[in-house]
Write a structure and sequence with these properties.
- This protein is an all-alpha fold and 394 residues long.
- The protein is 78% helix and 3% strand.
- Keywords: Membrane, Transmembrane, Transmembrane helix.
- The chain crosses the membrane at residues 20-45, 57-83, 116-142, 148-170, 227-245, 251-275, 310-330, 342-363.
- This is Integral membrane protein.
Length: 394
């Protein structure tokens, strides 16, 4: 698809809600990756026979990552609900059937008729966790009559009541307050269609065309990142396989070589990530000159690529912060508890500051997105019946 014409400009609520939602997604995803990373660390410690030295670090990273994953996963519901409400407010001022509205809906999806559904799901999950905790506390109170178990059961029951009340309030708001607003939105703005609408049949020809286009727009950096990722996985497996035999001289050198390869791959992935950023930021200048056909294809997916790259940067930044807090919490490098507290606080402040800066940059990208799509065109994201997603064909 070539240039589509003007796009309905996003409101301030829209750009901030989408950017904050991306930050929450990144923090939750980094928590999940941190859980897997801590498990790998402890597994390598067990295989290498050095569990006493590495297990506290692995447990600390696990605790920090699990806490962050639980906290930010619970925030996903409010974040997505805020995005839905901001999308409704954005579409309210548009003319029915206008080209700007159609282009905006094409990229952002339709305003859902159940805007608070993500928040309801989150509250239901909180209620379920609270009910389980209340049952366990009740059983312990019955076995050992203690005020602590009784208070815990009462608090958890209170959480369940508040969560259920929140679900009922959300449904009441949707039915009574939001229903008239949804009914008054322009035609075509309300529905369940997301931006990734299924518009391609799952045929052999379509799969071939999508694969050919993916090969055309891929860059050497993409191939290098894939190679570095596979080498990192192989190096981690090599460290785990050879650490057990470290008393043998030959195997000891092999374990050291695998560890060095893993470190080199991590550095290479970071460098390639930065190189990808430079490549994407230089692409608009290339497109304004004399771009090739392949470069024009890359330009049509520029805003999506920038958004994905920003999300990956947020995930890496959060993952580094979780690992740093886990190391400070589990390692006895800091002699005093006050020093450990200051270290954790310093990493936390640095992480929040960095994530806030990345979120602000994400806001800037969200504001510039319609201008970039107007200048360079935009490929409609599609999803085949098999679930494979790819930019639309031109």
């Amino acid at each position: 698809m070539a240039r589509r014409g003007a796009e309905l400009p996003p409101t301030a609520r829209m750009v901030w809600s989408r950017s904050i939602a991306d930050a929450v997604i990144a923090a939750a995803s980094a928590g999940g990756i941190g859980i897997a990373l801590s498990c790998v660390i402890m597994l390598l410690a067990v295989v290498g026979g050095a569990s006493d030295g590495l297990q506290p670090i692995g447990l600390s990273i696990l605790a920090v990552s699990a806490g962050a994953a639980a906290l930010f996963s619970a925030m996903l519901g409010p974040a997505f609900a805020a995005v839905n409400l901001a999308r409704m407010r954005m579409y309210r001022g548009a003319a029915p059937g206008s080209v700007p509205l159609r282009n905006a809906v094409e990229f952002r999806g339709q305003a859902t008729s159940s805007s608070l559904f993500p928040l309801e799901v989150t509250l239901v999950c909180v209620a379920g966790a609270g009910a389980l905790a209340a049952i366990v506390s009740g059983i312990l109170w019955a076995q050992e009559p203690d005020a602590v178990y009784r208070d815990a059961m009462l608090c958890c029951t209170g959480f369940v009541v508040l969560a259920v009340l929140g679900v009922l309030i959300c449904r009441g708001i949707t039915r009574h307050r939001l229903a008239p607003v949804l009914a008054g939105l322009p035609a075509g703005a309300v529905g369940q269609r997301d931006a990734d609408e299924t518009i391609l049949a799952d045929t052999r020809e379509n799969r071939r065309l999508l694969a050919a286009r993916a090969r055309r727009v891929s860059t050497p950096l993409d191939n290098a990142r894939s190679a570095a990722g596979w080498c990192l996985a192989a190096a981690v497996v090599g460290v785990g396989a050879t650490a057990r035999l470290r008393h043998e001289p030959a195997w000891s050198w092999l374990a050291i070589a695998a560890a060095v390869l893993a470190a080199v791959c991590v550095v290479a992935l970071i460098v390639l990530h930065l190189a990808r950023w430079i490549q994407l930021t230089r692409l608009p200048g290339v497109l304004r000159g004399s771009p090739t056909e392949v470069e024009q294809e890359r330009g049509r997916s520029l805003t999506r690529d920038l958004r994905d790259q920003m999300l990956a940067t947020m995930i890496l930044w959060s993952l580094a912060a979780y690992a740093g807090m886990g190391l400070v919490r589990g390692e006895d490098v800091v002699a005093t508890s006050s020093g450990r507290t200051l270290g954790l606080l310093g990493i936390l402040i640095l992480w929040v500051a960095g994530l806030s800066l990345l979120t602000w940059l994400r806001v800037r990208l969200e504001r510039l997105g319609p201008l970039l799509r107007e200048e360079f065109g935009y490929d409609v994201p599609v999803r085949t019946a098999s679930g494979d997603s790819s930019p639309g064909l031109v």
